[in-house]
Design goal:
The chain has 122 residues and is mainly beta. The protein is built from no helices and 11 strands. The strands form 2 sheets. Strands 2, 4, 5, 6, 9, 10 and 11 form a 7-stranded mixed sheet that branches.
Length: 122
């Protein structure tokens, strides 16, 4: 079964930078999008940013201008860099990879990572 391995979480100073990576194991037929969501304590899981294989990106208004998201050529890894972090951006960051296992499936499935905790604090 496909697995997502996330890395890069931890403690970050306010105003510092965060870099997260998420790598999928195993092959799939097609990738629709990859990205990251954040869930703060007691809050809903919200979009941070996503990217498609063709390079189309979507990001939350709160991170525009501070964020870079990219996908590798093999379409297995998504990398997120967020600069000038704010305390309210503390939370668990979850990797999303929306994929199609087989051509015959004709539909995409959402793969979610276990989440990596990020604490923006002094």
């Amino acid at each position: 079964q496909e697995r997502l391995v996330e890395s890069g979480g931890g403690f970050v100073q306010p105003g510092g930078s965060l870099k997260l990576s998420c790598t999928r194991s195993g092959s799939v037929f097609s990738v629709k999008r990859m990205g990251w969501y954040r869930q703060a304590q007691g809050k809903e899981r919200d979009l941070v940013a996503t990217i498609t294989p063709r390079g189309d990106t979507i990001s939350a208004d709160s991170v525009k201008g501070r964020i870079t998201i990219s996908m590798d050529n093999a379409k297995t890894t998504v990398t997120l860099q967020l600069n000038h972090l704010k305390p309210e951006e503390t939370g668990v960051y979850y990797c999303l990879q929306e994929i199609m296992y087989y051509k015959i499936s004709t539909r995409y499935v959402e793969l979610w990572g276990q989440g990596t905790a990020v604490a923006v604090t002094s």
